[in-house]
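Support request from a user on the community tier.

User writes: "When I paste my structure tokens into the form, the page sometimes reloads and wipes my input. The last time it worked, I copied everything first. Here is what I submitted, just in case something in the input itself triggers the reload:"
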């Protein structure tokens, strides 16, 4: 094999570098690859189609320069193969390094292999196999790679990077890592300038404070703010989960805002908060729901469903006890009790449920009304209902007849979900229809006193003790006047009683009328006299 020594003479003590002489007229032809420099150039007669270049080799293609230790230069085909310390240089912002380069000047396409590194401003790409389309200015890796900017490190099996737009597309086993969280997915679009990740497939984002599950949205890794779609799920470190049709999430602030079918679940506290709009703050542990708002508490067997136009939960310092507030137009349902009021609050500190403004509580066939009702809970079981300002109880007996009790203060004691005892204190008034042995009712008892205790067993009055200064009378029903049927201010509100957990969203007109009346128990139905 004969080698033609073209520019270097080896019989000298030291090889002399010679710059190839290229006419100036040809040096700036568009789309032409030019050899700028090499220490030596050989021609192999067995491969006359290329020149062998060695030592400090430098090529130019328009405004791009290519450097290497050695190269095979296919001048007529306008392409080259470069080896050792390969570098592609475009301006002062884009450099690509590799062990090997296969460059086609006609197609403007480069294939770089082994220890590839692209440096573009603040972004560095690492891979072992990299194809670079210089026409579209897009680079590709397909055997695994890594992209690093000042904010994040991204790895994937396949990746694209466009220096003009700074956009990346990553596929298969994608991982985005920074010092705050890790994002895993199979498809991700990311911009190395804005540091925004566009999520288009199943994605998990794990941090010390939360875990996010989503399949569509965007995440700004600079300020940790995200918009998530398709009922994404955020799981807080305390076990709370937030989902919705669309979620705006600020990870740094611990704030999630959900639009459309919001559901906030707190498994540790056995609660669910729902609404068409709502938010949750992980750091302050405050929550808010509105538009068909619903709160559920299911700590002990039975579940209570609470609806209001707005529902809020928050922690009360210094003991971090939980508070839930619902307002206005509140309706709630549980199998043992149901109720309505214009505002409701629950405090975990004393396990108290407070009902304000026209509260009504139902238990079986009994209805309790007052200016304020306080329900004492014990392990989610109703222990007693306390009416400190005024109380009135009604019990449907038959047709238009009701047992009725009222007084300045009333306490209803519960046992196994039913009222078992009533304590009435101050200005006691009673209308009772005792059941006869044949289970009929034939007399009406009107009584007044100062104090009253009623014992109830098997849903019937077992014992009644009224004292002192008792007065009253017994009247056969057929002789009783209509004015004796009802206590002043009594009305049976069965038509607005929540029937089940779905009925709590319906706001009957009678309930609206009641809530628009003065804030105290007052006659709603006019009592007819005996001549009517």
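"...and here is what came back when it finally went through:"
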């Amino acid at each position: 094999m004969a080698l033609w020594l073209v520019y270097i003479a080896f019989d000298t003590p030291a090889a002399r570098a010679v710059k190839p002489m290229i006419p100036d007229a040809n040096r700036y032809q568009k789309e032409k690859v030019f050899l700028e420099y090499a220490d030596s150039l050989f021609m192999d007669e067995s491969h006359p189609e290329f020149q062998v270049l060695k030592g400090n080799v430098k090529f130019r293609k328009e405004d791009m320069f290519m450097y290497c230790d050695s190269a095979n230069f296919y001048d007529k085909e306008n392409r080259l193969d470069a080896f050792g310390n390969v570098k592609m240089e475009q301006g002062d912002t884009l450099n690509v390094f590799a062990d090997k380069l296969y460059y086609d000047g006609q197609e403007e396409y480069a294939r770089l292999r082994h220890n590839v590194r692209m440096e573009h401003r603040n972004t560095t790409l690492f891979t072992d196999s990299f194809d670079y389309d210089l026409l579209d200015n897009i680079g590709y890796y397909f055997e695994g790679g890594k992209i690093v900017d000042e904010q994040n490190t991204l790895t994937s099996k396949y990746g694209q990077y466009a220096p003009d737009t700074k956009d990346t597309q990553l596929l298969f086993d994608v991982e985005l890592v920074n010092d705050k969280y890790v994002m895993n997915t199979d498809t991700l679009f990311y911009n190395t300038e804005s540091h925004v990740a566009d999520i288009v497939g199943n994605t998990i984002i794990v941090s010390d404070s939360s875990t996010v599950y989503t399949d569509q949205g965007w995440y700004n890794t600079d300020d940790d703010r995200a918009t998530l779609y398709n009922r994404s799920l955020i799981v807080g470190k305390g076990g709370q989960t937030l989902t919705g049709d669309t979620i705006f999430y600020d990870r740094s602030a611990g704030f999630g805002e959900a639009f459309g079918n919001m559901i906030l679940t707190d498994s540790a506290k056995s609660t669910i908060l729902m609404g068409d709009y709502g938010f949750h703050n992980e750091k302050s542990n405050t929550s808010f729901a509105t538009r068909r708002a619903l709160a559920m508490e299911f700590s002990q067997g039975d579940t209570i469903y609470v609806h209001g136009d707005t529902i809020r939960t928050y922690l009360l310092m210094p003991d971090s006890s939980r508070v839930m507030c619902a307002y206005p137009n509140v309706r709630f349902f549980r199998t043992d009790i149901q109720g309505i009021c214009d505002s409701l609050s629950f405090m975990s500190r004393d396990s108290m449920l407070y009902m304000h403004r026209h509260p009504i509580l139902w238990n079986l066939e009994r209805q309790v009304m007052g200016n304020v009702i306080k329900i004492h809970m014990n392990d989610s079981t109703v222990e007693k209902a306390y009416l400190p300002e005024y109380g009135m109880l009604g019990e449907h007996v038959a047709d238009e007849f009701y047992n009725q009790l009222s007084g300045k203060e009333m306490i209803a004691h519960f046992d196994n979900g039913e009222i078992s005892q009533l304590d009435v204190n101050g200005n006691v008034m009673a209308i009772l229809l005792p059941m006869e042995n044949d289970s009929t009712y034939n007399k009406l008892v009107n009584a007044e006193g100062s104090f009253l205790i009623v014992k109830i067993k098997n849903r019937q009055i077992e014992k009644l003790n009224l004292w002192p200064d008792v007065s009253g009378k017994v009247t056969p029903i057929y002789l009783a006047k209509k004015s004796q049927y009802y206590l002043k201010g009594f009305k049976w509100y069965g038509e607005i009683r929540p029937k089940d957990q779905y009925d709590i969203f319906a706001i009957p007109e009678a309930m609206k009328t009641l809530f628009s009346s003065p804030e105290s128990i007052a006659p709603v139905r006019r009592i007819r006299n005996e001549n009517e």
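Agent notes: The reload is a front-end session timeout and is unrelated to the input. Residues 509-515 form the longest helix (7 residues). The helical segments are 509-515. Escalated to web team.
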